[in-house]
Amino acid sequence: MDGYSHTHLGDNASQTRRRLTLSLVLTAVFVVFEAAAGVYSNSLVLLTDAAHNLTDVIALALSLYAVWLALKPSSAAKTYGYHRVGILVALVNSTTLVVISLGIFFSAYQRFLSPPEVKSGVLIVVGLIAFAVNLVTALLVMKGSENDLNLRSTFLHLMGDVVSTLGAVAAGVVIFFTGWNLLDPLVSVFIGLLILWNAWGILRESVDILLESTPRDVDMDAMIRDMSQIEGVLGVHDLHVWSITQSMRTMSAHVLTDDIAISLGAQIQGQLNEILLKRYNIEHATLQLECADCQPCLYSDMNGITVQHEQV
After folding, report:
1. Which residues does residue 241 pair with via DSSP β-bridges, in sequence order?
2. I want to staple 276 with a disulfide (CB 3.0 to 4.6 A). Which of 88, 111, 135, 282 is the partner?
């Protein structure tokens, strides 16, 4: 990576850290206010949202740490650097969302059995304030979240709060006019299901990356066909594709060629790298060229079948 790219990434990370810090401060201050309002109004919706906001504080702090740590240079001990820290944070964030959802369901069950009276006026006012705070913090984190699983997990945390506060306001309005206190735990269950749904997507993708699974949008058969169309490529085997982070992919493969000069091999590698970058967003590929007719070669195809390549 050249100096300009490194500086550009550093500037982006600095801007991200500032947005995360501002979101962290706003959310932490509001958690205290909303929890007090929930206790005063006897509203499970507000207490549920305050608990979710508390996990947002933790999620923002972890994301902030991950962004800072990812800028540390690679070393002999960590040749890929610290980029995977963001994936670990996403895994922790999504797991906490699952735990929160289960807690919401349990609290809602207890209130279904014995619904207490809810101070709907407090619920409406605090819900509107919460909506504004959560929306601002979510928008601060949104930039870059589409290509960063760490930021996306935090963004989903915050957007879950935006939706839950809208539910709290709606519940407060209905309770104010009808006195139907059962709506408070009912909305909480809906919020819990929404949080659980969002958490599952992040959790699944985080585990896939940590297990070095093939990215879901990569068709391995199509990749082999594309690589085999390059002039001079006789076959591809031992192909592996995995992700370091959501947006950082890498691969390795053995490429069979004729007995050619190193310069021609370099041209083939260059053409393969171009295809892999343009069609599959793979910036780092380790390609080992092998002479197909130079010596017997044992290799495995994509179906795991061992093939003997006979010397001519």
Report:
1. 251
2. 282
